[in-house]
Amino acid sequence: MVNIISDVCKYIIIILVVWYTIGAFTALQKRDRKELKWIYYRQNVLTFLLHGTGYLVIILNEKSLDFVIFYAAQVIFFVIYLLLYRSIYKKSSMILLNHMMFFLAIGFIMLARLSFEKVTRQFVFACIAAIVTLVVPRMFSKLKAARRWAMVVGIVGILALAAVLVLGEVEYGAKLSIQLPGDFSIQPSEFVKISFVLLMAVLFRERTDIKRVLFATGVAGAHIIVLVLSRDLGAALIYCMTYLCMLYVASKKPLYFAGGLGLGACAAVAAYFLFSHVQTRVEAWLDPWPIFSSKGNQIGNSLFGIATGGWMGQGLYQGYPKLIPVVDSDFIFAGISEEMGGIVALCIILICLSCLIMFITVSIDLYIPFYKLTGLGLAVVYGTQVFLMIGGDIKMIPSTGVTLPFVSYGGSSVLATFIVFGIIQELYIKRHNEEDRIERKKREQREQEKAGAAGERAKAEAKARRERAAQGKA
């Protein structure tokens, strides 16, 4: 009976995710606020139904009251957060808020299926991140103030990365985090990428002459070198792409971008010869099957999982995602593909693309260069991270060990992504206010023109009456 219900729920999940995805792209095209409002509410309903359907399967398989209580706690969290956010930030982007909830729901479902301990910790991380970042748009409502302390934050960021280099423990060939008391750890590179974007936006907001470019390159290079020495090459690649894109947008010189890509390619080749774990990942990427029992086990099992899942998926608890090493973080996309299916996996990619389009759309419509560069920089950070994560799972590129925002296990990643979306929400509010001001000025100008035209007509009519009266006397 449980297997039958699981199979039915598998198809229900696919329908709900596809319906949600269609709404995500429909909302990008709509301008009527009433129509958008209904799309947003429908997405909320679909997310709650998806979350409930997934946990129904989990509860039936686990047969534990703990999962029932845990599901109820998540529903309460979603409801409170949605209501609070909408009441505090009435002009915020509901589509981005809905996407945050959707990704969290998918992550909670998959992590609960994999490990109750880890999904509990992830839920605690998400609650803390939601509370902390509920004030992020307010904090960044005066982003101009960031110009004064961006250099200080940049220096602190480099020092934080250096602390990982000195104090961090080696995991999977790289130093990624600093261990804290109580079996907790923090990954500074997740937060420093935000300060890095703000710093570059400050440096490029007014000028991009050769002196400024060389100075900014030196600052960016310092960040990247520390990451390379820590062997955190996935983060180093994100920082590099972010810098090059921000430099290109600010300077409008393709030569800078092309030259940076060339240097980056040379650095990647050098990293291959310098670091053994990079050689292992490249070797596994090129052909994992001869070395499946050792170096190719991770990517090999990932490909097996994606292939056996097919388009429809095996169904929750019907596959073997736990065979994939680090499936809860670096390879969670492969686990989702195996049990929820290729259609759901493809929809997740499309919704990530929808978020990226929103990031870029919000940014390019802003008038102040600092805001524009900040938004575009965060868009590149988000887009590059999603590409590296999914590309590594499907063997499109070598695995880089980055997480899928909001979905993968990891407190630092969840908190940093909440902050990124919070900043974009504030930029969206600023754009909304600018549009309102422009519309108000246009309306006032039209009213003045109408008043002027009415005045001219009144004068003309009065003059005509005087002329007729003069002719009558004559």
Structure explained in plain terms:
This protein is mainly alpha-helical and 474 residues long. It has helices at residues 2-29, 33-62, 65-88, 94-114, 116-133, 136-139, 146-167, 188-204, 210-229, 233-251, 254-274, 276-286, 297-309, 332-340, 342-364, 369-393, 411-473; strands at residues 170-171, 174-175, 178-180, 184-186. The strands form two sheets. A two-stranded antiparallel ribbon has the order 1-2. It has a two-stranded antiparallel sheet with strand order 3-4. β3 (178-180) and β4 form a beta hairpin. α8 (188-204) runs antiparallel to α16 and α9 (210-229) packs antiparallel against α10 (233-251).
Low-confidence stretches: none
Order of helices and strands: HHHHHHHEEEEHHHHHHHHHH
Estimate the global geometry from the Cα principal axes.
globular
Gyration radius, in Å: 27 Å
Give the distance, in angstroms, between the N- and C-terminal Cα atoms.
106 Å
User: Average pLDDT across residues?
Assistant: 86
What is the number of helices?
Answer: 17
Question: How much strand content do the residues show?
Answer: under 5%
How many structural domains in the coordinates? 2
Q: What percentage of residues falls in helices of 4 or more residues? A: over 70%
Strand order across the largest sheet: 1-2
Structural class: mainly alpha
How would a textbook summarize the main sheet? 2 strands, antiparallel
Number of strands: 4
In short:
With 474 residues, this protein is mainly alpha-helical. It has 17 helices and four strands. Strands 1-2 form a two-stranded antiparallel sheet. It has a two-stranded antiparallel sheet with strand order 3-4.
